[in-house]
Amino acid sequence: MLSYIGRRLALGLFTVWAVSVLAFLIIQLPPGDFATTRLAELAAAGNPSAVYEAERLRAEYGLDQPIFVQYFTWIGQVIQGNLGMSFDWNRPVADVIGDRLLLSMVVSVAAIIFTWAVALPIGVYSAVRRYSVGDYTFTFLGFLGLAIPNFLLALILMYLGFAVFDANVGGLFSPEYESAPWSFAKAWDLLKHLLLPAVVLGMTGTAQLVRIMRANLLDELKKPYVITARAKGLSERRMVAKYPVRVALNPFASSIGFLFPQVVSGAIVVSIVLSLPTVGPLLLRSLQAQDMFLAGAIVLLLGVMTVIGTLISDLVLMWLDPRIRHAR
Amino acid sequence: MTTGGYSRRGFLRDVVLVSGGALVLGACTSTPVAQTGASAGRGGRAMAGLPDVQGAELIIDPARFPKTFREAPELAKLVADGKLPPVAERVGAEPLVLKPVEGVGRYGGQIRRGFVGQGDWQNAVRFCSGPDSLLYWDYKFENVVPNIARAFELSDNDTVLTLHLRKGMRWSDGHPFTADDIVFWREDVSLTAELGSGSSSMRIGGEQIRVEKVDDLTVRFVSKVPNPLLPERLAGWTDVAGMVATGHLGGGGFMPKHYLSQFHPKYSSVDAANKLAAEAGFKGWAAFFRNQASWHRNPNLPTVTPWVLTRPISNPPWEFGPNPYSIWVDNEGNQLPYIGKITMGNIENTEVLGLRAAAGEYDMQDRHLGVTNLPVLLENEKRSGYTIHRAPFTELDCGIRVNLAYEEDKELGELIRTVEFRRALSMGIDRGQVNEAFFLGTCTPSATMAAEGSIYDPGPEWRTKWATHDPAQANSLLDGIGLTAKDSAGYRLRKDGNGRIRLDYQAFPGFADFIGIGEMIKRQWQAIGIDLNVQAAESNLLIQRATANQLMLSGQQVGTDDPFLKADTFLPTITNNYPGMIGIPYAQWFASGGKQGKEPPESMKLLKDAMALYEKGLSEPDDAERVRIGKELYKMHADQVWSIGIVGFGLALNGVYLTNNNLRNVPARVVNSLHMKSMNNTYPMTFFYA
Amino acid sequence: MPDNATLTASQDEERISVASQRQLIWWRFRKHKLAMVGGIIVLFFYFVALFGDFLSTSDPLASEGQRSMMPPQSVHFFDNGSFSPHVYAVRGERDPITLQRHYTVDPNQKIPVRLFASGYEYKLFGLIPTNIHLIGTEGTRAEESLFLFGTDQQGRDIYSRLIHATGTSMFIGLAGVALSIMLGVVLGGISGYYGGAVDTVIQRLIEILRSIPVIPLWMGLAAAMPREWSVTQVYLALTVILSIIGWTELGRVVRGRMMQIRGEDFVTAAELVGSRPRRIIFKHMVPLFASHIIAATTLALPLMIVAETSLSFLGLGLRPPAISWGTMLQQAQNVQAVALSPWMLLPVLPVIVVILAFNFLGDGLRDAADPYDL
Questions:
Q1: For chain A, where are the E strands, in sequence order?
Q2: Cβ–Cβ < 8 Å for C303, C316
Q3: What fold, for C161-368?
Q4: Complex ipTM value
Q5: Chain C window 287-316: which residues touch A at a Cβ cutoff of 8 Å?
Q6: Mutate which of A8, A130, A133, A143 to disrupt the C interface (most C C-beta within 10 Å)?
Q7: Which residues is B18 bridged to in the sheet?
Q8: B359 and A45 in contact by Cβ < 8 A?
Q9: Cβ C213–A299 below 8 Å, yes or no?
Q10: Helix C290-313 vs helix C325-332: angle between axes, to the nearest 10 degrees?
């Protein structure tokens, strides 16, 4: 077991390294560099003659060096725990990401809670009342969430919130709380703003989860122990809740590891539409601006999270199901 | 002692926006359509055009100066606590006195705004920076007036500009503001290669302008040749016009020597400066210095703006507080600003910004209110308690930049350098359609031209020169240059037998949908047998392609409102950025005196003539003659179609500003020009809440 | 465990025992009503895609500023009691104060609408030149008079654009999915069959690809495309990019199944007879779960369509002037459209319908895939 974990960790390290190389290459692929971004900015500001700025930037940040030199400079820093300075923000990358990581987690957790709160009951209901009107209705609604492009849904819901309910528009805080220190009122404000992103982001995952839950539970319901339980006179409701649902939940428990990186990268579009101060829009902007260190750090971070998530979920599965352990 | 007598710009006095012959713009206080029937007076006013340009009046006559001064309560408390000197000491002996549009206000409140990411640093610069340029324009955009400097005079031969500073004026940290700060900027920043590489506005006739300290409060700018436009450069949107606008790029015109010298190796050593930088996480002292000189990033930077940074742009919300040493006072001696706090939320996308504005979550917003969202904003005026004001742009919002030096495809390059071909392209465009579909009919169809009423306006006939929709004439022009062979679909064929004449149009969406505009023009050019390949590209990509001389046509804002102050897209003057795409190799040739780049060929001889005229105008001491040259340049540009103007003078480019109905002293209309650093010319330091 | 419904009568049992696997799947599939409906809808959409020009009324690129943002017209079927479908002429004007364009119907000017009318010229299947359209107008050009779903900002007919977009969006999915299935089966198959070092390499590749957030991958590769490429070429390249990421999921599944059946007797038998690995994998092993692959394909297609719409939103996918559901939705992605011109949001309907249809179809196929199960 320990040697297995050790081997997996070593492979994980390799994967992370490969991700770092790939990430660096991919970020470099689009033409131009951060200096071009600065030039574009100056051109848009009606200040096109400040060209020397671009050349200075290239020299200062080593953008004029060959790509492998840039890579080793960067990865050397990262290994020492220094993520470098964001060109775009002129602040240490760690600070820039740090501000948003917490809020990203909050949004992700809210979305996951929404998904589970909606999907699990529907999944159970659909399995127990298979082929009933309710099963079809809920399944259909679940699929609808999958089918509506969520960026459009976000905009429409946001507009309705504004036009009909006079709700605050976009973001995670009202303007008056944005720079305020944390307080009960601020947390309440955050909660009010969380509903919309949680619903929009959660919708997509719901259909999938309903389907998995339904299938898992159907498998379980056919098992002999269910018949035994029924034969012993357990009420149907208690019986279902007590045994098969628990077993059917196992795969969910094991997938917790992935959820965060998935939600972060899947939420970019929605976060932009809703103007959420999360990591997603930061990643997109850093890529567009070719803010190498910031983009690299975020991609690397997500890669590490996925690798750790995979490892955790594999371990959880092995712990839950001895058969898998032996198969290795 | 005052401004010298050149009242130069009479434009925008009686400008009524005309589109397709009909008046389309409402009054500033527009009402929803349901109400117009009830009140004929308002409707009538709407039809009469826009209100007059307004702005706070600058009081220069010392006899009208206030004798006593008052301040905001929070500052008064600091004085009472002994943490600040009294207000009369802080504003100095010669403050900057403004008479607000409506009247004297009262202190308190905050202004909420939105900005869009780190690239939007000029948001505050163009709203609440004062501006902090040494000189500025009056609100009508007619005369250069004193600003941070108390007065200025130009010598008879226009070679020496003398600036007089304000007695007792201080930086926001209380340190006196003197001539040393200007000399420090020029010698230790602007002329230091790592920081400034000299400012392009500080060169004329190939020579650097010298800055000399006469005494603590007097500075002379000495040019080798007549430099009549230097006051305008110090007043406008250039790298010498204000520290907050270009300080982080090594420009500005002055810098706080007492603060910034600690980061400068000349005042310590390169090692010490680098060490400071490394401690802050920067690579090298120059990067750190420029960061420290950024108004939007460094809250510790002493400034002379009415508001000082309290929370940087990189840690949103971006916030400002009152400058206790602000030199701005109203005509009764109240230190400005009235509203001490400005808070700007970071918005990831402009649609959310538009919605927030419509919901009344902003007190003053101008940037990023897209023209297509105007109907929604107008519809919600009543409900959300704000007013939309219209400030039409002084330039052309939309046109096609043409790369006259295009070489990648020899045959197409030659065609582009053929004047009849460019004229035909221009006449193949139905400008009214572009105006209706993309600008809600708020623009005026025009060739690349100065605004109506501008001192450089050569007359209305030039606005339509080769710029009417006339496919028949366009076709005969094209037939006339031998492009008669067509394929089965009606497209004209190349002479070398390689299929259709297929032009490339590349653009990025920007403040208008330039891709959609390209699609529409592609359709319109079908009628003249010209095929257009429309491509969307990132702005980064366009810059790279522009500097590599690979762009052919690009949809963007074109032209200028002043050929001498900002010739960017108007003449080949920019050597390595996208605005120079009119001909970067030519610009390099002109800039290097023929040593680099490429000489314009015989077919582009008129371009050389235009550049010679432009150079002459730059140091032409006779104002009337310079204006004549300017008009001549516009005429040549329109006649030669060096860029294809489409529509302009509309609301697309920061052309509307939204203000909370409780705000007072808001001008009903302002001049919307880069040189005015609009919306600084709404004088937000005089705003107050009723 | 036999399903009661399938085995009620003994002649059914008889029939089932002699039926081929193909028949069994079909019978089973037919019972899945939703899947049948889904299948028919999907077929309908591909039909629309194939006959795009015929079904359109106007040239999808015909723009007219004076018709910007016109709401959908209503078609009147009866005129004074007799069947005579027509629409009314519409005139537009801009309100000088709200800046909105207002359109008024002119009840005196009727424009007859008929089937098989002549309209703009096109080539059916890219071969047969014709100008006959399913629906059209008489007396005027449809480009000037018939706007079933309204117009967009440039005054282009949304109905016709939607029809054209259907083609683009339905096929972008197809090409991408085909490629990712191929990659998934081949790489997953090899990985599962050989195991060992090959397996480790492919599994690491999958893990790495899955560890990179998709957006940077898309951005990097999309930007790397040469600028001379036309919209169509970019679009093809895009499907390749989509499939580079899309195959990993199927690759894992295929590998798992391969490992399961690797040790079965028939594989050993085939090896002993001297079959080459390629033959064993593709002739003997892959057909065992071919139906699962089909189901996976149906479920992957809607994901591709969704991916295309969100890529276009980010300005990374198809871009105008290409017409796809994604580019159309991108144009509707603004407050103006949602608040004042909601018909711009119409492209979302086919997206929803087709994704639902694909999902139900896929579910049915998966259930039917293994007719001996249950």
A1: none
A2: no
A3: MetI-like fold (1.10.3720)
A4: 0.85
A5: 302, 306, 309-310, 313-314
A6: A143
A7: B23
A8: no
A9: yes
A10: 30
- Compute the count of residue pairs across chains A and B with CB atoms less than 8 Å apart: 153
- The pLDDT assigned to C344 comes to 92
B154's tokens = 């130009």
Provide the token pair at A225: 């122990």
Q: Is C5 on the interface with A (CB under 8 A)?
A: no
What would the mean pLDDT of B351-373 be, rounded to a whole number?
90
Put simply, whether B511 touches C (Cβ < 8 Å) is no
Asked if residue B41 lies in contact with residue B27, where contact means CB atoms within 8 angstroms, the answer is no
Spatial contact of C38 and C359, defined as CB atoms under 8 Å apart: yes
Q: How large is the average pLDDT for residues B324-332?
A: 96
- As beta bridge partners, residue A215 has none
Residues 6+ apart with CB under 8 A from B292: B259, B260, B263, B298, B300, B301
Q: What is the pLDDT of residues A19-69, one digit of tens each?
A: 888 888 888 877 778 888 878 877 777 765 555 667 777 887 788 888 888
pLDDT tens digits for A92-103? Answer: 899 999 878 888
A181 at B interface, C-beta within 8 A: no
Determine whether the interchain pair C65/B23 forms a contact, defined as Cβ–Cβ distance below 8 Å.
Answer: no
Show residues of chain C in contact with B437, CB under 8 Å: 63, 65, 68, 153-155
Short-list B32, B652, B376, C72, CA closest to A155: B376
Highest mean pLDDT among B6-10, B434-438, C20-24: B434-438
Q: What is the pLDDT of residues B246-269, one digit of tens each?
A: 888 888 899 999 999 999 999 999
Chain B residue numbers touching A54 (CB-CB < 8 A): 576
Task: State which H helix or E strand residue C104 sits in.
Answer: strand C101-124
d(CA A263, CA A112): 9
Sign, CA torsion B473/B478/B484/B489: negative
Beta partners for A134?
Answer: none
CA distances from B94 to B176, B194, C44 (A): 13, 36, 80
d(CA C362, CA A211): 12
> Is the CB of C97 less than 8 angstroms away from the CB of B536?
no
Q: pTM for the full model?
A: 0.87
CA dihedral A317, A321, A322, A327 (to 10 degrees): -60
CB proximity under 8 Å: B 291-310 to A: 291, 294, 297
Q: Which residues contact B532 (CB under 8 A, 6 or more apart)?
A: B502, B503, B504, B505, B518, B521, B522, B525, B553
Q: Do B433 and C99 touch (CB under 8 A)?
A: no
Nearest to B335 by CA among B519, B71, B108, B520: B71
The minimal CB distance from C335 to the residues B26, B351, B545 is found for B351
**Dihedral through CA A182, CA A185, CA A191, CA A196, nearest 10?**
-110
Residue C192 sits at the vertex; the CA angle it makes with C188 and C194, to the nearest 5 degrees, is 120
**Contact at CB, A16 and C211, closer than 8 angstroms:** yes
Q: Where along chain C do its domains lie?
A: 54-152, 161-368
Helix, strand, coil percentages, rounded to 5, for chain C: 60, 15, 25
**B32 vs C98: CB contact, 8 Å cut-off?**
yes
User: Structural domain boundaries of chain A?
Assistant: 2-92, 96-327
When CB atoms are compared, the residue of B46, B376, B545 closest to C97 is: B46
Task: Chain A: give the shortest CA distance to residue C332, in Å.
Answer: 8
Give me the CATH code for the A96-327 domain, please. Answer: 1.10.3720.10
Q: Which residues of B touch A297 (CB under 8 A)?
A: none
Phi, psi of A181 (to 5 degrees): -70, 160
Q: What is the DSSP letter of C286?
A: G
Instruction: Write out the two tokens for C60.
Output: 């999808």
**Mean pLDDT value of segment B233-242:** 91
